[in-house]
Amino acid sequence: MPIPESDPNTPLGNSKTLVAYFSAQGHTQAVAERIVELTGADVYRIEASDPYSEDPYDDSDRIQKEAYNDLRPGVANLPDADAIARYDTIFVGSPCWWHQPAMVVCTFLEAYDLKDKVIIPFITYGATTYLNESMQKIYKLTPHSKHIPETLPEDLDPDDITTPGRPDDTGIEMPGNGNGTEAWLRKIGLIK
Predict the structure, then answer these.
(1) Which of 36, 88, 123, 167 lies at a 20 to 30 A Cα distance from 19?
(2) How many of the other CB atoms lie within 10 Å of CB of 187?
(3) Considering the chain, what is the average pLDDT of its residues?
(4) CATH domain 17-187 topology
(5) From residue 7, how far is each of 10, 11, 12, 119 by CA, in Å?
(6) From CA 131, how far away is CA 12, in angstroms rounded?
(7) Model pTM?
(8) 167 burial class (0-12, 13-18, 19+ CB within 10 angstroms)?
(9) Are 22 and 45 in contact (CB under 8 A)?
């Protein structure tokens, strides 16, 4: 089921669950759409104030600079705090860009008090390395939230996101793509 056309940039409906995501090439959007379809969650697409190229590889230098310097690019369509406050559970979707979630997602997370909310990250990626680093980043930005999964594997190289580290992604479940979303939601216990 596609995201409702009325306005995919602001939360819709009356659900207590929100799928907030950033997608450049449609991979993360496909997972977000499937989560919405299977759970009835509301949806919000994070848009960068300074849009990225249609092909993120054309913005590789910018994306690397944002990730490696922990920058916070602007969000063009931040909902007001009351809109986000009404949700109990927030799925947070992002591609893995230069070993981190897209920094525009970090800007979104830091804009709100997410204390006691359930945060469920989903990361799309071309390679399975750096999944733990992306998840660790989201957990660090939401320290007073509850997380699914509750804990992550130890980050074996937490001080270096710029070079390939030791494999530490084992045990982190992700949907991988839209087709894997239902099995992932079952595995983490959110649907039967």
Answers:
(1) 167
(2) 14
(3) 90
(4) Rossmann fold (3.40.50)
(5) 6, 8, 8, 23
(6) 29
(7) 0.91
(8) exposed
(9) yes
Measured CA angle at 144 (ends 104, 97), to 5 deg: 25
* Mean pLDDT along residues 29-56: 95
Asked if the model's pLDDT at residue 54 lies above 90, the reply is no
Are 126 and 158 contacting, i.e. CB atoms less than 8 angstroms apart? no
CA dihedral 9, 122, 117, 167 (to 10 degrees): -140
How far is residue 2's CA from residue 36's CA, in Å, rounded to a whole number?
Answer: 9
In terms of phi and psi (left: phi > 0; alpha: psi -120 to 50; beta: otherwise), the region of 91 is beta
Q: Which two tokens stand for residue 82?
A: 């009351």
Residue length of the chain: 192
Sign of the CA dihedral with 180 first, then 184, 187, and 189 last = negative
pLDDT band for position 6 (cuts 50, 70, 90): very low
pLDDT, residue 12, reads 58
Write down the domain spans for the chain.
17-187
Amino acid at 82: D
Distances (CA, A) of 154 to 1, 11, 124, 133, 159: 37, 34, 20, 10, 13
